[in-house]
Design a protein that fits this description.
single chain; alpha/beta; Rossmann fold
Length: 231
């Protein structure tokens, strides 16, 4: 009887009919979703790649993000040196403060720049975003929180909508190739986005690209409005 009841509860919780535990709803579900989105595309990107503010480079599902980028010619990580950004002592590690001036040797050093849920913890997020773009000669892949409880004792300042994410890329001269967000009911919402400095290069792989930031599609006026399933 107990096992049958547990099974019913798991099915009901998976269908969004019962509340999830806080940690799963706030962190695990959107992390697993963003990892699944990342796996769909990483095989496309060749050349040197970097995980910015990587900490230990773990994907929090038992793997490492370097394993996702099977086509990359090299893999580097950056860290800042405090808390969850503590330096790891790895051979491929670079010290990087996203609120400082980007070192000249890092300008367009990487073909692909990946960053997962960092900008909400950086007060000058525009400067940090600019640095991500400047490090890339082509691709930036970013994951940002849109709806998520405040967390971390080292600063948690910002949340980002699909529209603001799009505009940030536009202001840095990048073409947005792909944008999605978590749609699991009763869970936090992450934004997942891929953009390229090289306009037109990736159209064959991304034939249906997102609208611009000024497009009326971003107005939240319908039942299918972005993020509505989270509620």
């Amino acid at each position: 009887m107990t096992s049958a009841r547990s099974l019913v509860r798991r099915v009901a919780r998976g269908a969004g009919l019962l509340p999830r535990d806080f940690m799963s709803a706030a962190f695990s579900i959107p992390r697993r979703w963003s990892n699944a989105e990342l796996r769909r595309f990483t095989h496309l990107f060749e050349g040197p790649a970097v995980n910015v503010s990587a900490w230990q480079d773990r994907d929090k599902e038992g793997g490492f993000y370097r394993q996702y980028f099977s086509s990359a010619s090299s893999w580097s990580i950056t860290n800042f040196g405090t808390d969850q950004g503590a330096l790891q002592g790895a051979d491929n590690e670079i010290f990087l403060d996203l609120e400082a001036e980007l070192p000249a040797e890092l300008h367009q050093k990487f073909a692909t720049v990946f960053n997962h849920t960092t900008l909400e913890h950086v007060w000058d997020f525009r400067k940090a975003f600019r640095a991500l773009g400047a490090m890339s000669s082509d691709i930036v892949i970013i994951v940002l929180p849109w709806l998520q409880p405040q967390h971390a004792d080292y600063g948690d300042y910002w949340r980002f909508s699909p529209q603001s994410t799009t505009r940030l890329f536009e202001e840095e001269g990048f073409e947005l190739l792909y944008l999605s967000w978590t749609d699991t009911p009763n869970a936090a919402v992450y934004i997942f986005a891929i953009a390229s400095r090289q306009h037109g290069k990736w159209h064959a792989h991304f034939p249906e690209r997102p609208p611009g930031s000024s497009d009326p599609q971003f107005l939240l006026t319908s039942k299918s409005a972005a993020g509505s399933r989270a509620f």
